[in-house]
Hints:
Elements: H1 2-20, H2 25-29, E1 32-38, H3 47-63, E2 68-74, H4 80-84, H5 89-100, E3 104-108, H6 109-114, H7 119-122, E4 131-132, H8 135-144, E5 148-150
Parallel strand pairs: 1-2, 1-5, 2-3, 3-4
Helix pairs in contact: 3-5
Amino acid sequence: MIRFFALAATLVAMTMTYAASPAVAEDRYGKQKVVYHVNYDGGESDKAYIKALKNIQNHINAVGKENIEVKVVLHGDGVNMLRDATKDLKLQGEVTNLKTQKVAFNVCANTLKGRKIDPDKDLFEVFKEDIVPSGVAELSYLQGKGYTYIKP
C-alpha cells in the first residue's frame, strides 16, 4: 500500500512538473513581428503605461528576444509615456530595458506638432529616427508588413 501511494505521489509530481514547464518558445511561437498601440494616458502614477510595458516584456519572455521584433507606436495621449518618463525613474527603467532588447518606440509627428512637443527637450530618449509621420498610418503600414496589432 505504501508503494502505491509513493508511486501515485511520484506520478502526480511528474505531471505537475511537466504542466508547469514552459513550452519551448521557438517550437510553439516561431518568429513574430508585433506592434503595440499606445494612445491613452498613463493615469495615476503611470500605471497603465507600466502595465503595457510589462505586457511587452512578458511577450518577449514567452517568445524569446531572438524570435521577436517589437515596435511601440505612440500617438495622442500615448506620447505622454515618454514625456512622463523624463521625470519618472521607474518608467525610464522600463523603457530603457525594452530598448536594450531592440524594442522600437515610434512617436507620431502629427501629435508632436499639434501639441507643440519638442522631442529633444520634452521626451525621454526620442531621436529623429524614432519619429514617424503619422501614428495611425504607421499602425496600418506595419500591419501591412505582417506585424500583429496589439493594444494593451
